[in-house]
């Protein structure tokens, strides 16, 4: 287990208006001296402006919650995907390196092909299958330009104030008494944004060995099972509409088996709650 450094740091959070960004600002504000930048504060693709602004602020940690997350749109707009998900990451990482700061960045289960039978670990070989996934993998590599980098792979984020996640779509339909479509053959490890924020706060304090960590709620399930848990928690009589990945044609392929093992994070000292526990807390 890593040594705890209980020090207040100057932390810069970029992408602060996003689903995870808002949770990170809320979580870290009590503990650190936080500066939060949204797109209104700075356009991250203006690399020189970003370098100068970071140099002036001189943060001790940079947390990158920005991303171009439109998985299907990225197939037709690979330039923006690479620019935001990779080049911006490189600029932030090198700015952190110049200051000797920690660089925390978020990536995705989509870097894997989804053909595995057991949860992916950090040593498994990425095999991205879409433009979005490729841009995120390049971003992971560029994050390593900061010696003190942490790349946290999350997936199926839910629980942010924007309420735009797959979990929220199911919750809204179940609450309306309408049959929510749920995949019977896509397996995921959902990630509650506030659990990801807590784990991120732990990593900033403990500073375990740099590298990639899977930061998802413990366990995995089909979307059908996730939907059934939501129905149970809400106490609804609504039935779900089971669908297959073969029923839905999307421009960008998704990994079918996307379970991630968070054992490395647990070994570093942070045990993520189960996804059932997280959904229960979110809905209560
Ligand atoms: N959501 C998921 O289910 C999921 C799954 C796997 C991995 N992840 C990863 O988790 C992290 C957080 O995701 P999220 O869902 O919180 O993302 P999000 O809600 O889409 O937020 C991303 C933020 O980045 C900002 N941004 C994008 N391009 C920018 C630019 N050029 N300059 C300045 N700001 C820019 C966006 O600003 P605007 O609001 O102005 O566009 C937005 O506030 C990302 O790294 C993502 O890849 C998410």
Could you please say which CATH topology of the domain at 10-162 and 191-218 and 259-273 applies here? Rossmann fold
Q: What structural class do you assign from the helix and strand content?
A: alpha/beta
Low-confidence stretches: none
Order of helices and strands: EHEHEHHEHEEHEEEHEEHEHH
For this structure, what is the CATH class of the domain at 10-162 and 191-218 and 259-273? Answer: Alpha Beta
Oligomeric state, counting identical vs distinct chains:
single chain
The largest pleated sheet is described as:
6 strands, parallel
Measured between the Cα atoms of the first and last residue, the distance is 32 Å
Provide a count of the helices: 10
Percent of residues in beta strands: 15-25%
CATH architecture of the domain at 10-162 and 191-218 and 259-273: 3-Layer(aba) Sandwich
Write a compact overview of the structure shown.
The chain is of the alpha/beta class and 284 residues long.
Description:
This protein is α/β, with parallel strands linked by helices. The chain has ten helices and twelve strands. The protein has a domain of 196 residues: 3-Layer(aba) Sandwich (Rossmann fold), CATH 3.40.50.720. The strands form four sheets. Strands 2-1-3-4-5-10 form a six-stranded parallel sheet, sandwiched between helices. A two-stranded parallel ribbon has the order 6-9. NADP nicotinamide-adenine-dinucleotide phosphate binds next to α1 and β4.
